[in-house]
Amino acid sequence: MSFADEVKRWVSPRSVGGQMALLLVATSIIAAASRPVMEQVLLNPSDVLQQFKLWQLVSPTFLVPPSPLGLIFGLIILLQTGAWLETQWSRPKVWLFVFGVNLLANVATVLVGLLSPSVFASSFFGGYTTIEALWIAQGLIVGPGRLNWFGFPLSGYAFAVIGAAFTLLAGITGSWVAVVPQVFGIIITVAWVQGYTPSQLLLRFRSRQLERDLRKRSSHLSVVKGQKNDRDSYLN
Question: What does the alpha-carbon distance between residue 105 and residue 189 come to, in Å, rounded to a whole number?
Fold first, then answer.
């Protein structure tokens, strides 16, 4: 496949990467053009807790700050990683992963807001959480294998570390408050790729619950030991 064909596959609206890229552009431009819209769709822990604006737990999933560099960088990552993950998982699983990671990360951020006045009074974009989740997921899936990053051959693990480093450096050089959802997104992504998805956790919980129920039901039973003179010849 030529590079031109690969780019066409990435930007196709039929692919997950292309659909996410369109959402990133559309929602970011609309929100940037209207301050009232921006205030309603950004994650504000104070609004979620005091005014019950629960839609803010998912509405900023594809919002990035109105910066040309951030928007272009986000488009490249979404197009590439979204298309790649679609080939590894499936379209529904990729969408579930994106919204699941954002929802869990935003819920955790709101809970932190109960303890931190700075987080409680802040607003958060969710686009960077999405971008880094896809980035790190691809790196972890590739693992010790090799991939190409802007012409540099890297292992998948190194690729994932670079993605996480953007968040950590932003928190160190800037404000830790601004990267709280992204930090939670990284943790949730690692757990998700390792198999600790909500459905898997629920399945494990039900399995253990069933095992406990079976143990309780069989607690009154006892093992009957055979006599020493029992002989297999009498068994039918």
Answer: 10
Residues 37, 143: Cα–Cα separation, whole Å: 40
* Strands in 109-165 per DSSP E: 146-149, 152-155
Q: Quick one: angle between helices 68-88 and 91-113, nearest 10?
A: 130
> Is there a contact between 28 and 71 (Cβ–Cβ < 8 Å)?
yes
Q: Which two tokens stand for residue 133?
A: 């989740």
Q: Treating both helix axes as pointing N-terminal to C-terminal, what angle do 16-33 and 3-11 enclose, rounded to 10 degrees?
A: 60
How many whole angstroms separate alpha carbon 230 and alpha carbon 227? Answer: 5
Residue from 96, 82, 69 nearest 12 by CA: 82
pLDDT tens, position by position, 172-215: 988 899 999 999 999 999 999 998 877 766 776 777 777 776 67
3-state secondary structure of 155: strand
How many C-beta atoms lie closer than 10 Å to residue 203's C-beta? 11
Max Cα-Cα span within the chain = 91
- Is-contact 192 101, C-beta < 8 A? yes
Q: Cβ-count burial of 96 within 10 angstroms (0-12 exposed, 13-18 middle, 19+ buried)? A: middle
